[in-house]
Fold Putative iron-regulated membrane protein.
Amino acid sequence: MASRSAPLTAPRARSLPARAFWVVAHRWAGLSLALFLGIAGLTGSLLPWIEELEAATAPHLHNASWTGTPDPLAVREQVISRYPGAAVDFLPLTVEPGKALRLHLHWLDPKTGLEREHGPGVPDWDDLFLNPVTGKEQGRREWGAIDQGVKNLMPFLYRLHYSLALGTVGTLMFGIAALVWTVDCFVGFYLTLPPRAPKTPRAPLLERWRPSWRVRWKAAPYKLNFDLHRAGGLWLWPLLLVFAWSSVSFNMPQVYVPVMKALGAEDSRMILFDNALPTPRNAPALNFRQATERGHELARIEAGKQGLAVLDEGERWIWHVPASGIYVYGFTTGADIGHHGGGTRVAFDSNTGALRGVEMPSGVNGANTFTNWLSALHTAQVFGLPYRMFVSVLGLAVTMLSVTGIVIWLKKRSARAGRAIRR
């Protein structure tokens, strides 16, 4: 008699964790992000108006009365001769009417050529505001040092926004928070979906999902709080994801760059790393005036290759990178995304003027265009005044979502404690 063989069973299919797991994950992600998102939301609601608020809080620095044609190159030369040992590597070439020219200075070690942050001869300021025509000084400040008073209020809020004003450590902390936020966006979206219904006749998915989009304004306080958290997150979800992932690009490029590179993006910063020099080239063969002329020439040539013209309106600037022996010239074309312009760039050797790289903000590389749009949306550089107002409201909404999430957690925690006491 043949022995009876054990019944064969199908291998158990792997499945995602149950909904309860994602509820707990979302809860703890929200609690860990509450401080970061609360501060980022509040400060971010002000940053779309940073230029106006800077002029309001420090008008003696940012506003200037002048007639004639600004000459930033000549003003820079005056500053360099006035402050021996100082370097000005970034120079705006356009100045708005009624505004001062702001130059950021740093001081070099005469032996190594490297920047010095402290020590003999290093003053307690790094921002210098000047009349763009005459070069007359209007004031100074150390950017972001709130102990110098209200003139640094907006720079300090900016530092809070991206690093909690904690420098490199804070930037890394915010980068990790942005990464968690990005993942939690998808978790939160999943939790708004209705639970799986039984196999008996059931309503369509969209009909069961509809309550997640509603706010019961006349409901009890807890229900209203819950609806604001769930429906608010749903209505704003696309922009929340944009701001979360763009925050990763700003604060954690070691994660963002490889991901986008896998999608075909090209990191323009690699030009600087690939051309790194053993020692900084602080005195290149091309001075700033010659480099500006060379940059404008290359801009016209490279823009023409893409069927674009160099536009007179919009920003122009030039940046010297001594560590790489490179000048970067920013100008404005039809490919620019932000309303200020200046996003189209050419990089060239600071001795020979040989072209090293070209960056078009849009229309050439799809992944790069995506990144530039993320940046422009995050900084409210597109769609004019209505979008700036929307970003301010969005910042407050992010803070609201953090607060309502904490209220939900406290309520559930109190309920669990009450059940434990009754048991």
User: Anything to note?
Assistant: Confidence is low (pLDDT under 50) at residues 1-13. The chain has three domains: 22-64+152-190+213-262+371-422, 67-133, 267-364. The first strand starts at residue 86 and ends at 87. The CA atoms of residues 167 and 313 lie 35 Å apart.
